[in-house]
Amino acid sequence: MQPRLSAGRAAAQRLAFPRRDDGLRRGVREPRAPDPADYDRARPAVDVARSGPGGRRTLHRDPGRDRGAEHRKDQPPRRRPGDHTCGRQRRRHVTDVEHAPDPAGLRQLFLLRPDVVYLNHGAFGACPRPVFDTYQRWQLELERQPVEFLHYRFRDLMRQARESLAAFLGAAPDDVVYVTNATTGVNMVARSLTLRPGDEVLTTDHEYGALDRTWQFVCEQRGARYVQARLPLPLESPEEVVEAVWGQRTERTRVLFLSHVTSPTALILPIEPLLRRARTAGIITVVDGAHAPGQIPLDLDALGADFYAGNCHKWMCAPKGAGFLYVRRELQSLVIPPVVSWGWRAGFIEEQQWQGTRDIAAFLSVPAAIDFLREHNWPAVRQACHALVRIARGALEAETGLPPLSADSPAWYAQMVSVPLPLPDAERARTRLWTEFGIEAPVSEWAGRCLVRVSIQGYNTRADVDALVSAVARLISEEKRRGSR
User: Fold this and answer.
1) Aminotransferase class V domain location, by residue (predicted)?
2) Is the same domain home to 155 and 177?
3) Alpha helices, DSSP H, located in 39-181
4) What's the structural domain count of the chain?
5) Burial class, 194, CB count within 10 angstroms (exposed 0-12 / middle 13-18 / buried 19+)
6) What is the pTM of this model?
7) pLDDT tens track for 137-175
8) Cα(246)–Cα(241) distance, rounded to whole angstroms?
């Protein structure tokens, strides 16, 4: 039996705000909205049926009605018009990066301090100057006439921003809603689920700590269990990962929660076959895509997750406070809005989009971030970044002598890699990298290992990598001398 989710809500007429078409004044242009393709949709794989007093909704999944299953099986992911970033999730090992922009030139377009070796883009991202300027212009436009902006133009502006993001993600605009970050999106889903005592949420031991806490909280409140499958290291075979996770599935498994790219270990997980298995078994799937958009190509419709939460402020280089939640069309009425306001009973977008007075400038700046990636040939940038992070991985492994977390393949890592270090105190190592060497790179303890996570963005150079390797070599050398006393 599937978990019952949020109380059902009858569809109502959309809020009829007056509309203006005069655009931004004083030379500030509207975000450019793409013309998304018509998205073909098969019959939904789950029915939302009313039953019982009050019309409470329950889920009835029909494994034989898997929307897009044949498409995903026999064809590569669709490319959206004007979106050259979409493509296959698994890529060959690319070494030709001659068409990538010069990192020094890209560095000038970011606001990062020039005296810092910044190898931590994966933490909070970094916003280019042109995108940040757009962000500030939106804020200024709001303050020039708040009522006009939020009352008359809000819905049109958000629609345009949503269409641009949806085209980038390979999704329909009505299946995507803006949220402040991926953690918020996963919380919205997790807290909408009505798990029963004894139900299980299945995940891995590589998940983001904050979301481990989210699910543990929800499970404690409902009497459910949070089951963490241990993945075999080093990761070498996608099949081994799939079997390690699926081997922990029981008759009580109701939800499968997976990271697309893990946070502590920076690994790309083979989630597609697990999502297919879960669909067949009638298990709800929730994906933490915090590190995926902008780092790996996405086609969310083809991927087939029930819920997918991601960030725009990390690898898409949008301003802080821009994330999204993708929900399959037939499940949208089941997501409880975190703030119930004027959009209540007006459908998924209206319910989630209007949450009282707030600054939406970060959302409206996402199209500018997407334009920035396109204008600077970001597929080539990603290839160059992977080549450089591979150099960093090899050099660090040569210094440490420790085995890696995965095979050396772009199937397992893209622009971010975690490398084990033979150091006893992760926090001390991180502090020393910053205070003594001016290097911003996270060092953390995970599963009894000390890991340094290296993020390579288009503005990073070989000199940045060499500085980190030199600093790590010194820390290891000092630790060896200390241990020999």
Assistant:
1) 118-468
2) yes
3) 69-74, 103-107, 121-124, 129-144, 146-147, 154-169
4) 2
5) middle
6) 0.81
7) 999 999 999 999 999 999 999 999 999 999 999 999 999
8) 9
